[in-house]
Amino acid sequence: MRIVVMVSGSGTNLQSILDAVAAGELPLDIAAVGADKPCLGIERAQAAGVPTFLVQPGDYADRPSWNRALEEKIASYNPDYIVFAGFMRIVDAQLVERFKNRIINTHPALLPSFPGAHGVRDALAHGVKITGLTVHFVDAGVDTGPILAQAAVPVLDDDTEETLHERIKVQERRLLVQTIASLAESHGAASDGAASDS
Ligand code: GRF
After folding, report:
1. Which residues are catalytically annotated?
2. How far is the CA of 112 from the centre of ligand 1 (A)?
3. How far apart, in whole angstroms, are the C-alpha atoms of residue 92 and residue 12?
């Protein structure tokens, strides 16, 4: 199985994937890591010897052109799955359709509650006592696609957005790797089936 991972920030979720692959716990190839801007996640990929690319919105005339460039760049690596690991951009319906049910996103809240860019802040502001994270397929909406896995994280009385997000991210890194491992297992079983059918 081949994956492309997209990042925008510190890349700790990406690091957990890189570490699991290096430890032989995730049977897949990371074909490339891409980002919408230079970031620590790209540096982590480079340090691991994984090919990287940038597709920056500012380099394109408009949003559709950026989406087409990103779509073609991802497609050029011929991935089975694309993992949005803290990729803070919304992609358009055409890109989602091209990779239908093959783009996985991780979101730091229990969807369908608190979608969008500020899932942790919004949950805290609402006063929920339990929040968490969701790993899901990307569809044409914002954080609305089919849910693959979730984990709950309690909100503590003295939590700030930062402390809560850090505790969520510990669970997020674990569940993201676990979800990708399940997809890799199904992918391997499907490939074995195809091989024995032929
Ligand atoms: C994660 O919590 C992700 O769900 C959110 O941003 C964070 C990314 O963290 N959208 P990192 O870049 O993987 O460290």
Report:
1. 107
2. 18
3. 26
Asked if 80 and 1 count as a contact pair (C-beta separation under 8 A), the reply is yes
Q: What's the CA-to-centroid distance between 169 and ligand 1, angstroms?
A: 7
Q: Does the pLDDT of residue 85 top 70, yes or no?
A: yes
Q: What is the mean pLDDT of residues 149-161?
A: 98
Pocket test residue of 106, 133, 153, 170 for ligand 1, highest count of atoms within 8 A of CB = 106
Per-residue pLDDT at 197: 53
Which has the closest alpha carbon to 39: 64, 14, 63? 14
pLDDT (mean) for 115-144:
97
Atom of ligand 1 nearest to the CA of 13: 13
Question: Of all atoms in ligand 1, which is nearest to the CA of residue 39?
Answer: 12
Q: What is the pTM of this model?
A: 0.95
Q: Which residues pair with 25 in a beta bridge?
A: none
Among positive and negative, which fits the CA dihedral 140, 79, 38, 114? Answer: positive
Q: Which fold has domain 2-196?
A: Rossmann fold (3.40.50)
Nearest one of 82, 87, 71, 77 to 39, comparing CA atoms: 87
Domain map (residue ranges) of the chain: 2-196
Q: Residue 70: is its pLDDT beyond 70?
A: yes
